[in-house]
Design brief:
There is one protein chain. By secondary structure, the chain is an alpha/beta fold. It is built from twelve helices and 14 strands. The strands form four sheets. The protein has an eight-stranded parallel beta barrel. Strands 1-2 form a two-stranded antiparallel sheet. Helix 6 (197-201) links the parallel strand 7 (184-189) and strand 8 (214-218).
Length: 434
């Protein structure tokens, strides 16, 4: 009788185990990332773009790479281009099983915001929304980027309002679909002429619906055996102190001086920066012509013979660490585990005030930070933007993309708790009936 009862209860125990084993989600709270378990989250990431289209389709390859990334100590991958019409469950599950989260770019080559002729139109919004629709399904999606290095000089800073408009409309789209609040932000080129204006611009203003959820920088200043002061990292920290949203390094790994030592990680995760910065993503996983790789998939081959190669570098196989870069990074990360702060303690602390919006400066940053943002499809007059006289931008919520097929569901604490309680009640009632 007991054996029969236990046998009938097994599905309920299995369901509860599955729910409790769900991957904690990541959210942006104030200037930090937190897991849904209440722990501060620090990014130890690696750029992962094996092929130009979508590296998250080959489940066997993702599984091999995820296992190797566990060895080096990574907990995040960054992917720049994906196909939102494909099924990513296998790869996302493989990385989730390894404790690895995803930051994914929403744009692609045809839809990225162009610096010289910036736009934010319905085609771009639909394309960005399609990526959001696909990756909001997965608890280990940690965040999304609306752009990567759109602004590379102060002369093209008039593209910044389009970036911020993309943030605004993607946040509105996310919330209108009832998706969990996946952090939405931007990955910037580290340009001295844009510091700290772009950083402050994307985080300023009284309207939270228009502010980015996070900001990140692609930083290649720390080369070889540099230092906190000599690399300019001390200036990055100075600009970020008191910042109101999470900030992290979205690319790093200078290769001018070989081998790469990755000693900048000790500063980012150490006492100099860990209270302000939320970690770093190292460029990159696979070895290719640019010589930034941490692993390869075997010796070079003739690209005219092998279809699984680009410029002679295999794009799949068993990941083989490249010495000494791989071991150098592994050694750094192994010793760096900042404890951070608990969410319960952090939310009790005073609220951080957004920075003042930057003003237009002749010969430099040319956007008035208080000017209205463009609506979808609107082209701003650059002179009006600089003066703050733009009259017609509305900031209204965008229409749903053609790929959207109904509301999503949040995978946060509320749903998790409800599922567990519901399963417990059903199980207790079932056992009592027996």
């Amino acid at each position: 009788m007991l054996a029969a009862t236990l046998s009938r209860c097994l599905p309920f125990f299995a369901a509860i185990t599955q729910v409790l084993a769900a991957t904690p989600t990541i959210s942006a709270v104030g200037s930090k990332f937190f897991t849904s378990d209440g722990d501060q989250f620090y990014i130890k990431g690696i750029a992962y773009q094996l092929i130009s289209t979508d590296p998250l389709l080959d489940v066997d390859q993702c599984t091999r790479d995820a296992k190797q990334m566990q060895d080096i100590g990574a907990n995040v991958i960054r992917v720049y281009h994906v196909d939102p019409t494909s099924d990513h469950k296998g790869c996302m599950d493989a990385f989730a099983d390894a404790g690895i989260y995803l930051f994914v770019d929403l744009d692609d080559f045809p839809t990225q915001i162009q610096p010289d002729t910036p736009s934010w139109n319905q085609t771009q919004l639909d394309a960005f929304s399609a990526v959001m629709d696909e990756f909001q399904k997965y608890d280990n999606t940690a965040g999304v980027f609306v752009g990567n290095e759109v602004l590379t000089t102060a002369e093209v800073s008039n593209a910044a309002p389009y970036v911020k408009a993309a943030v605004r409309d993607m946040k509105a789209y996310r919330d209108s679909k009832n998706y969990r609040k996946i952090p939405i932000g931007y990955s910037a080129a580290d340009v001295p002429g844009l510091r700290p204006m772009l950083q402050n611009y994307l985080a300023c203003g009284d309207n939270d619906a228009e502010r980015a959820d996070f900001y990140s920088l692609n930083v290649y200043e720390w080369c070889g055996a540099s230092s906190y002061d000599g690399s300019g990292y001390s200036e990055l920290e100075k600009n970020a102190t008191g910042y109101n949203i999470p900030i992290f390094v979205s690319e790093t790994g200078c290769r001018i001086s070989r081998p790469r030592l990755f000693t900048d990680q000790a500063a980012i995760f150490g006492q100099e920066m860990s209270d302000t910065w939320s970690g770093a993503i190292v460029y990159e996983w696979i070895e290719e012509a640019n010589d930034y790789g941490l692993i390869n998939y075997g010796p070079m081959v003739d690209p005219t013979v092998s279809t699984d190669a680009l410029d002679g570098y295999p794009r799949s196989g068993t990941p083989t660490p490249i010495s000494p870069d791989y071991s150098n990074l592994k050694g750094q990360w192994a010793t760096l585990s900042p404890e951070g702060v608990k969410l319960s303690a952090y939310t009790a602390s005073p609220k951080i005030t957004p920075p003042a919006c930057p003003t237009s400066t002749a010969g430099g940053w040319i956007v008035n930070g208080n000017a209205a943002l463009p609506s979808v499809g609107q082209t701003l007059d650059s002179a009006a933007t600089a003066s703050g006289a733009t009259p017609t931008a509305t900031g209204t919520a965008p229409k749903a993309s053609a790929s959207a097929t109904g509301g999503g569901t949040s995978s946060g604490d509320t749903i998790l708790t409800g599922m567990v309680l519901g399963l417990l009640v059903v199980m207790i009632g079932f056992v009592g009936w027996m």
